[in-house]
């Protein structure tokens, strides 16, 4: 997709020449003075035109608008490198948008390729020692649960395996709420060596 240039044999209308001169001065004012009014004028003129141009390259409206705004931000940051002797203001501005579009397309292709590669790469199997360690902890946990008194085991099962809140446990077991918490503390003291990573053998 070419940039909006006049043909080599055509002379631009006088109004276009005047507008180009105004835009070039705006760019110089931004570069030398950080002129926000000049930037606002450029934004009003070019932002919608850049969006329309980017949509002709296949971008959806929302992405085209985001990229147009990125182009305008780049213009604010890089106005100092604009050289009116080498390019017209419109050419320079549309070239920035075009380059951003190319970069976005490259990133999109790279992301698609990375995603495809990831989908083809098998997941790494769990390390044998990690699996063995987990099994050992599970066995020790079951063995320790079996040693709990029935009243503590009932509270632990309701709290950790059924995820029941403490008031619900008290209601279901017909005991005070303080008793529920007390039995949980006693049970956790027995299980702490398994739950605390420091107490688990490597």
Description of the molecule:
Keywords: DNA-binding, Sigma factor, Transcription, Transcription regulation. Residues 42-109 form the RNA polymerase sigma-70 region domain. This is RNA polymerase sigma factor. Residues 139-191 form the RNA polymerase sigma factor 70 region 4 type domain. This protein is mainly α and 202 residues long. It has 2 domains: 14-120, RNA polymerase sigma factor, region 2, helix turn helix motif (Rna Polymerase Sigma Factor, Chain: A), CATH 1.10.1740.10; 128-199, Winged helix-like DNA-binding domain superfamily/Winged helix DNA-binding domain (Arc Repressor Mutant, subunit A), CATH 1.10.10.10. Helix content is 73%, strand content 0%. The chain has 8 helices and no strands. Helix 6 (150-161) crosses helix 8 and helix 7 (166-173) crosses helix 8 (177-195). It is rod-shaped.
Please outline what is shown here:
This protein has 202 residues and is mainly α.
Describe the protein's topology.
Elements: H1 14-33, H2 36-55, H3 61-78, H4 89-120, H5 128-146, H6 150-161, H7 166-173, H8 177-195
């Amino acid at each position: 997709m070419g940039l909006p240039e006049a043909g080599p044999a055509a002379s631009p209308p006088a109004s276009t020449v005047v507008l180009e001169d105004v835009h070039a001065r705006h760019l110089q004012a931004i570069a030398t003075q950080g002129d926000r009014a000049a930037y606002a004028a450029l934004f009003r003129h070019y932002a919608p035109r850049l969006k329309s141009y980017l949509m002709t390259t296949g971008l959806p409206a929302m992405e085209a608008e985001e990229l147009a705004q990125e182009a305008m931000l780049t213009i604010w940051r890089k106005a100092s490198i604009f050289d009116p002797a080498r390019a017209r203001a419109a050419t320079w501005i549309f070239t920035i948008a075009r380059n951003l579009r190319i970069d976005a397309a490259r990133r999109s292709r790279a992301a698609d390729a990375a995603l495809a590669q990831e989908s083809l790469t098998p997941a790494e199997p769990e390390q044998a020692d990690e699996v063995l360690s987990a099994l050992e902890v599970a066995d020790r946990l079951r063995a320790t649960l079996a040693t709990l008194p029935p009243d503590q085991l009932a509270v632990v099962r309701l709290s950790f395996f059924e995820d029941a809140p403490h008031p619900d446990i008290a209601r279901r077991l017909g005991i005070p709420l303080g008793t529920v918490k007390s039995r949980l503390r006693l049970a956790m003291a027995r299980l702490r060596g398994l739950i605390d990573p420091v107490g688990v053998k490597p």
